[in-house]
Design a protein that fits this description.
Length: 271
């Protein structure tokens, strides 16, 4: 009811408004929405809801980015993502160790791996809204969006490295498991699976639209269904579902099948 007023007058976008509204409706204030009241499996339910929220957010970022943006800017993104994530990972773990000295440093690294990625939903507060369109250059907004989407999925290797170093008896076994499972099975297989499913779905939707089997509104809505479908498939096999959702729309160039910027914006609003 007040989102347009907040966005146009005080430059506050939906992310901040949604967070504030969620706090008000949560168990510590109004008590209307309380995940802890969902029963004995409330943690698992909350986890899966957040998985869908993140995956659809990454999917929407992939739609908004230009065609093959990740491939064209791979070098700059790698320079931006990997060093900053690694440095932030170590620094946050050191802070955790100072605050909780009873924890081992490996345990702090495991916790830090969950805190290191840039949340793509929160990133929307920087790259979205009237203020961002007016004062933040388009190339910087695209770079921040791509970085937040990619590093959310790339947190898996940081987490699995600490887990295998903790669980395996030797460092050699830990590194083997980290490369085979943490990188190849979770990250690489997730990206490949998402890209293949996205490419297949893109051709199917273009065929259906050419034959008149589906209208334009349903055509746009199907992209949301695809993000949920890919998340379910890839998470079931144990690979990186977040990167898969992002790869599904970015790598095959599915964005080209949305012919206008208005349709991209419509998808963003829908998600």
């Amino acid at each position: 009811m007040f989102s347009l007023l907040a966005k146009e007058k005080i430059y506050v976008n939906e992310v901040v408004l949604g967070t504030f509204f969620g706090i008000l409706m949560g168990p510590h204030f109004a008590g209307i929405f309380d995940p802890r009241a969902w029963g004995p499996h409330s943690d698992a339910i909350t986890l899966e809801i957040m998985r869908i929220v993140l995956a659809t957010g990454l999917f929407a970022i992939g739609v908004e980015l230009p065609k093959s943006y990740m491939a064209k800017h791979a070098k700059s993104l790698l320079y931006m993502i990997l060093p900053t994530m690694a440095i932030g990972w170590v620094i946050v773990a050191a802070i955790m160790k100072a605050i909780f000295p009873q924890l081992s440093y490996l345990s702090c690294l495991a916790i830090s791996a969950c805190l290191t990625p840039t949340d793509p939903i929160i990133c929307a507060a920087i790259v979205g809204g009237k203020f961002a369109r007016k004062h933040v250059p388009i190339n910087l907004r695209q770079l921040l969006s791509a970085e937040s989407a990619a590093n959310d999925g790339l947190a898996y290797p940081f987490l699995t490295l600490t887990l295998y170093l903790t669980l395996d008896t030797t460092s050699g076994a830990a590194m083997t498991h980290w490369i085979l499972i943490g990188w190849l099975y979770q990250v690489f297989l997730g990206v490949v699976t998402g890209a293949i499913l996205g490419l297949m779905f893109s051709h199917l939707m273009k065929f259906s639209h050419r034959r008149g089997y589906i209208d334009r509104e349903s055509y746009v809505a199907q992209y949301l269904a695809l993000s949920v479908f890919i998340t379910g498939i890839v998470s079931t096999i144990g690979s990186d579902d977040l990167l898969a959702a992002f790869a599904a729309v970015q790598f095959p160039g599915m964005v080209t099948s949305m012919s206008t910027q208005r349709e991209k914006s419509l998808l963003r609003l829908l998600i």
